Amino acid sequence: MTRRVFRYVPFTIEQDASAEPEYEIRCVSGDETECGARSGTYSHPAPVEEWQRRHTQETRHRRYHRHFRDYAVMRPTAGSSEPGEPARAGGGAG
């Protein structure tokens, strides 16, 4: 019987450069209820910030909830095994 020992493989968490992040903002101004107006989702913060400036000019609302979403990937650190390939120590053939 072959004996295998598996060890911990260190990973880093990185932003996935192959997928664009998403930016959005929602107006939460209001005394009794929130305004709720939304900017829509964009791949860059500039259109969201412009929407926020226009909304503030039109309504005088000044409180917003910003949303930033991206994709993250787990990458093994240098010298460790590739994902799906557990690192092995000891054990012999097979």
Describe this structure in words.
This protein is of the alpha+beta class. It has one helix and six strands; from the N terminus they run βββαβββ. The strands form three sheets. It has a two-stranded antiparallel ribbon. Strands 2-5 form a two-stranded antiparallel sheet. A two-stranded antiparallel sheet has the order 3-4.
Explain briefly what this protein structure is.
This protein has 94 residues and is of the alpha+beta class.
- Terminal Cα separation, in Å? 10 Å
Query: Tally of extended strands?
Result: 6
The coarse overall form would be elongated
Largest sheet, spatial ordering of strands: 1-6
Radius of gyration: 24 Å
Descriptive tags:
elongated; 28% strand; disordered C terminus; 6 strands; alpha+beta; 94 residues; two-stranded antiparallel ribbon
Break the fold down into its secondary structure elements and pairings.
Blueprint (H helix, E strand, L loop, with lengths): L4 E2 L4 E5 L6 E6 L17 H15 L4 E6 L2 E5 L11 E2 L5
Antiparallel strand pairs: 1-6, 2-5, 3-4
